[in-house]
Amino acid sequence: MNQLLSNVIWLFFIIDPFGNLPIVISMLHKYDSKKQRSIIVREMLIALIFMTLFLFFGKTLLSIFNLKIEIVSISGGIILFLMAIKMIFQDNYTSTELKKINKIPFVVPIAVPLLAGPGIFSTLIFLSQKEQNNNLNIFFALIIAWCVSLLVFLFFITIFKLFNNKGVNELERFMGLLLIMLSIQMFLDGIKNYFHIF
């Protein structure tokens, strides 16, 4: 029981709903609350599918494509960096480019790599090795952590609706700055672990 609780807490903090919440809301602020909730539920389900697949088949998938977890971290950092640039400098885009940016997010970047990213992937592999491949126990902990994270998103989405449009736009730029730092950290972690430097 203690091990299950420990895994739940660990996975919850790696999914980090509180940290990802402002970034996710800033991407979805143009939609009404009902649409936001449906998008979040869908992206959370997609993220759960990726996390489950990686828990049970992650090492096999990486070996098939001759990839390392560090490559996932590097590519995820690049994706988040490009997204953050668009969040900060959105006023500099033409209307056509803005339409592309404002498409409803699907899989990238919310489900992957924000929710299901290299951090959770590497954690799942670590827990699998730690518990001698007892993946069903880890999966149960993952489901609990996922449910709590989903409740956090759905509950706090109403609070962010209190911001006016100008406030949300400024929040989006601020989150873009934080996202740039997060993406660079993710990229550097991948480089560091790949080359075993620093």
UniProtKB/TrEMBL annotation:
Keyword Cell wall biogenesis/degradation appears in the UniProt entry: no
Coiled-coil region: none
Transmembrane portions of the chain: 6-28, 40-58, 64-85, 106-126, 138-163, 175-195
Keyword Amino-acid biosynthesis: no
Topological category with respect to the lipid bilayer: Multi-pass membrane protein
Keywords, ordered alphabetically: Cell membrane, Membrane, Transmembrane, Transmembrane helix
First and last residue of the signal peptide: none
InterPro entries on file: Multi_antbiot-R_MarC (IPR002771)
Subcellular location: Cell membrane
Any one of the GO CC terms: plasma membrane
Sequence similarity: Belongs to the UPF0056 (MarC) family.
Matches recorded under PANTHER family: UPF0056 INNER MEMBRANE PROTEIN YHGN, UPF0056 MEMBRANE PROTEIN YHCE
Official protein name in the record: UPF0056 membrane protein
Native species: Wigglesworthia glossinidia endosymbiont of Glossina morsitans morsitans (Yale colony)
Gene: yhgN
